[in-house]
Amino acid sequence: MASYHLSVKTIKRSAGRTATAAGAYRAGERIECQREGRVHDYTRKQGIEETFIVAPENAPAWAQDRSKLWNEAEASETRRNSVTAREWELALPSEISAEDRSQITREFAEELVSRYGVAVDVAIHAPHREGDQRNHHAHVLTSTRKLEPEGFTAKTRVLDSAKTGGVEIEQMRGVWAELQNRALERVGEVERVDHRSLEVQREAAQERGDILSAEELDRDPELKLGPAANSMERREKAAAEREGREYKPVTERGAVVHAARQARAAFREMRERVEFAREVYGVERDAGQGRVSAGLAALRAATSKGRVTDDVRERLARITDRGQDRGGQSDEEQAGGRNYARDRLKEIMDKDAGRDGQAAVHKLDGHSDPELGEETGREERKPSVNERLKDVLNKPREKLEIEDGRDQDKDQEVENDREIDREIDRDPGLSH
User: Fold this and answer.
1) What's the CA angle centered on 244, arms 242 and 248, to 5 degrees?
2) Largest alpha-carbon pair distance within the chain?
3) Which residues belong to any copy of the MobA/MobL protein domain (predicted)?
4) Which end of the chain is more exposed for a tag (fewer CB within 10 A), N or C?
């Protein structure tokens, strides 16, 4: 599943960091820092898939020399607490190819150059060999000054200012989300990323009437593990996989993150079941089934994960084709349909064994609400929906098919009687 991540950090002298060391480490190269007289050699570093530098058109030729570039950036700063570089850390979609990942990263770097006039040094890293193999990412190191023909000049204060820095970064977050979504669309992926906060996404879902998505987004942001805890959890996951046992977090942060991910996975599965049940209900209704039979078929489909028959798959394919023909349907109507299916299934499953449950059964059977006395006993009243569902779900498939056939025979008899009545009405010799 595609996920979004973009973080911005600064390389500060006050923290004991240098642009030369940062550039050497991320690119896996050897750079001698002329200001400090130290050599940063990371040529043995592995997992670096690609590196390249993007600079303004009128930049000096030495801008393409990584060692010269970052030594010049260090030389342009004179204060002990100067910020000598800025790093943009990007998560790359695992669903697209390495070429596509390189392309969208280059486009992002070009946007930084165009917007701020800085030099950009890009290093694309592969997933850690012991970590999540979907964790493709890029380190985008930029100068904090504009790069012009004479060298580094004015500071990019628009990114440093408290008033404008947040706005600029948020705009670049949107740019990165758009680049990823275009790449995902090109390869036919349905998933999309969203750079907005969970709160903003939830409010947007509520405005368009998508209550299920709003509930899914009503959570806290995932806790960041940090390097130490992340390393411990990676080792434990690898050990659990080797030994064939269930993974259990070994740190408090890991336990919180693991529980949150399990909850999100359970919610996604529930949502998939609800949506699938809605599709099955529509298929069965189109096939001539009554509301009760179609509802039960939908609930059986929702509770039978991984046991979808070929017949249902074929019917769903036909529904999908019809859905494409209904392209003119508004977003509000589509959202309304999804919400109705969810609310209806929730109503059916949550009804208790009392009056509400019996009323729901009568309503689904096409009758008006019965007058049920308060003194109606368990032996005299009809079974509740939950009781009927348990009974149906526990029946063998052959018995269900026989009962469905009986229902269809009854429906056919009723239809034949109606046809006879219509023939009598049309025949003048039989009229009274």
Assistant:
1) 90
2) 116
3) 17-202
4) C
